[in-house]
C-alpha cells in the first residue's frame, strides 16, 4: 500500500510537527508500508488552472501524482481565519473531481484556539466526500496547548495520533478487501 502524509500549509510549524509524529507512528506500526511525507512548504506548486493533473510539471506534478497513487492519505492542516489554508484548497483544485475515489483519508487539524474544532466537519469533510474519499470519521484536533518549542508535549495528543493511524489502516484494509471481493465476483 502507498501512504501519503500531507502537511497542507506553507506556513507555521505546528502542522509539520504533528505530521512528523503521524509519519513516525506509521513507520512504527506498519514498517513494511511505503510512506511519503509531503510538506507543501518544501514544494513550489502552481495554482490550479483547470488542466488535467497529468499536464502539470515539476513539484506540482510530483505532489499530485503521489496523491493520486496513494491508497491512504493523512491530511494535516492548520486553521487560518476559521478556514483551511489556500495551499491545501489548491491541492483539492489540482486533483480531478473523483480524485480521492478508493482512497482512505484521515484528518489532523492544528489551531490556535479550540473554537475552530468543527472546521473539519464543516469544510474539509464535505470536500473529501465530494471527491469520493473514504473518510475516517474521527480526526485529531490539536491547539496551542499541545505544543512547545516545535514538540508535542501533550501525551493525550500523541495517543490520539496513534489511534488515528490505527483507525486509518483498519478502514483502508477493510475497504480494500471488500473492494477486492466485489471485483472477484465479476470473474474476469
Automatic annotation (TrEMBL):
One of its GO terms (molecular function) is oxidoreductase activity. Gene3D superfamilies: 3.40.50.360. InterPro entries: Flavoprotein-like_sf, FMN_Rdtase-like_dom, NAD(P)H-dep_FMN_reductase. Residues 1-143 form the NADPH-dependent FMN reductase-like domain. Keywords: Flavoprotein, FMN, Oxidoreductase. This is FMN reductase. It comes from Alkalibacterium putridalgicola.
Amino acid at each position: 500500500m502507498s501512504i501519503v502524509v500531507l502537511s497542507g500549509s506553507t506556513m507555521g510549524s505546528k502542522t509539520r510537527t504533528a505530521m512528523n509524529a503521524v509519519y513516525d507512528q506509521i513507520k512504527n506500526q506498519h514498517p513494511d508500508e511505503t510512506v511519503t511525507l509531503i510538506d507543501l512548504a518544501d514544494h513550489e506548486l502552481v495554482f490550479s488552472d483547470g488542466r488535467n493533473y497529468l499536464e502539470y510539471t515539476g513539484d506540482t506534478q510530483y505532489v499530485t501524482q503521489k496523491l493520486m497513487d496513494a491508497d491512504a492519505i493523512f491530511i494535516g492542516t492548520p486553521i487560518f481565519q476559521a478556514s483551511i489554508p489556500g495551499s491545501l484548497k489548491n491541492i483539492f483544485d489540482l486533483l480531478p473531481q473523483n480524485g480521492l475515489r478508493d482512497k482512505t483519508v484521515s484528518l489532523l487539524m492544528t489551531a490556535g484556539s479550540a473554537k475552530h474544532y468543527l472546521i473539519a466537519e464543516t469544510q474539509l469533510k464535505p470536500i473529501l466526500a465530494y471527491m469520493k474519499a473514504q473518510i475516517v470519521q474521527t480526526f485529531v484536533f490539536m491547539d496551542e496547548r499541545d505544543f512547545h518549542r516545535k514538540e508535542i508535549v501533550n501525551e493525550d495528543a500523541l495517543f490520539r495520533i496513534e489511534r488515528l493511524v490505527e483507525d486509518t489502516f483498519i478502514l483502508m484494509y477493510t475497504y480494500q478487501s471488500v473492494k477486492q471481493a466485489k471485483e472477484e465476483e465479476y470473474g474476469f
